[in-house]
Design goal:
- The longest helix is centred in the first third of the chain and has 19 residues.
- The protein is 82% helix and 0% strand.
- It is globular and about 50 Å long.
- By secondary structure, it is mainly alpha-helical.
- It folds into 2 domains: 63 residues; 80 residues, Serine Threonine Protein Phosphatase 5, Tetratricopeptide repeat.
Amino acid sequence: EYKKVIEMFDFMLEISTNVLGLDHMTTLRGHHNLGKAYMAMGRYDEAEKHFKIADSNGLKEIHGPENLFVHLATQALGDVQFQQGGFDDALKFYKEAYHGMERVCGRGATEVANILDKLAETYRRVGETDKATRLTREVTWIRSK
């Protein structure tokens, strides 16, 4: 089924690119969605390629640092690194995404809890259990509200 999804996203992305341009939010979201489909298939190189496009093309400059999608795109790059065992790189992307999401959404937002959860798991993987435990408590607090 993912093959059909990828074909559909590719088709939609081609139209969006031709009609709206490379830097339009719809096109960037198309790359993000295609990256998610490739991630689900375990095709991390293709996923990373599309996430990088979604995270670049002047995304921050065009749509501003207050756009949540900017930070979701950065988080997705962390997800690729995490899945491939690149935990140090994943931490870098997750920290950047966290700071942006906290600024945009506020401390108690679901998006912030989700990225903190990813940070906690990544810290566990690199053996920094104290940081992981502290973040897990924070995630629990946010989600209990």
